[in-house]
Amino acid sequence: MNSCATFVKTVTDAGFGSHASQWLIDAGFFSDVNQIKSTDICEHASEVEHSHFFTASGLFGSRDDKGEQVDDGDYKVIDADTISFPSH
After folding, report:
1. What pLDDT digit, counting tens, does each position of 13-47 carry?
2. Edge-to-edge strand order for the sheet containing 59-63?
3. 12, 65, 75, 86: least CB-packed within 10 angstroms?
4. What pTM was computed for the model?
């Protein structure tokens, strides 16, 4: 289960806070920007179940709250701290 507060903190800490509202919609926490309050950006946010998987053969994917695959591609481990997604 993904947390709105953790999502906002992560994008803000990474320097992308100005995109948080749109990304909250894209991630499924809200369906419309008018649902997002400026005083508490996560108030009334939906819970979002989302998972990722990585295979030993170099494929990855995402699944939504219904278990449906919603993204796919390939990945490469660059070093102990870095993953690259060549087809994205």
Report:
1. 999 999 999 999 988 899 898 999 888 999 999 88
2. 51-54, 59-63, 69-74
3. 86
4. 0.62
Give the DSSP per-residue string, 41-61.
TTTTPPPB--EEEE-TTSEEE
Tokens 């709250």, located at residue: 65
Residue type, 36: I
Q: How far apart are CA 75 and CA 40, in angstroms?
A: 36
CA distance 47 to 22: 16
Rg over CA atoms, the chain: 15
The tokens of 84 are what? 């690259």
